[in-house]
Amino acid sequence: MTDPILVLDDARLSLDGNAGRVDILRGITFDVARGETVGLVGPSGSGKSSLLMLIGGLERATGGRVSVLGRDLGPMGEDALARFRRDNMGVVFQSFHLIPTMTALENVATPLELAGAPDAFERAEAELAAVGLASRAHHYPAQMSGGEQQRTALARAAAPRPAILLADEPTGNLDGPTGEAIMGLLFGLRDRHGATLILVTHAPELAARCDRTVRLEDGRLAGTPAASAARDAAARDEGRGARPDALTAAAE
Ligand SMILES: Nc1ncnc2c1ncn2[C@@H]1O[C@H](COP(=O)(O)OP(=O)(O)OP(=O)(O)O)[C@@H](O)[C@H]1O
Ligand SMILES: [Mg+2]
Hints:
binds adenosine-5'-triphosphate; six-stranded mixed beta sheet; 252 residues; Rossmann fold; alpha/beta; 9 helices; disordered C terminus; binds magnesium ion
């Protein structure tokens, strides 16, 4: 693959909590080409959101390498990482992360202002109109439905025309026609601006529109030896009436 925009090389994420160390991502290796659209799929708890956080530089890999646009994120300081993200990436979180004290318009305009756009508010208005929220521009997040907040978060991430857009369940709270419109907007970013899209999704229609899907299972890519071994062991144990956590235990 020439000039990948994203390189994950044995990327790992382990976190220490009060319940001990949790290995959330256990060695993820794959590349994404510029302009490619990748659907990140897998069961709940398999590590999809965590992987998006690693790629977005919001969590640091505890092992391996994450490289975006040829930059290794590991050694970058917090400020450099924040600037790099602002200039190159848009992120839509599973829980939206809108700023509660700002209206929809202010939420969308803020990253444009930070990037020095002189027409931040006009552009933000156009972005909100593009997600069907022209009439909600002056609403605060608490005055909007879940789907409206989600569309605002998407408008905010898309407005600076990032090279990479990371979105966690971008159609998760949307009904059919609105979901369709959002898919159109996402793929429009690719078609018109060459954006690379990495989309976590449970929606088969959205996954099917991606160039390819990457499936996570228990913190690993599905089909890698350890993931297969865990599945096999769990299947064997099921026959003996093992507890449902056998899959996790078998992966250790
Ligand atoms: N801060 C944390 N500390 C400890 N464990 C965590 C932390 N964040 C996530 N996890 C665990 O890591 C695993 C992966 O979580 P993640 O949110 O990435 O899953 P997911 O694939 O996005 O799931 P879903 O489809 O439900 O959103 C889960 O088992 C979760 O409980
Ligand atoms: Mg998630």
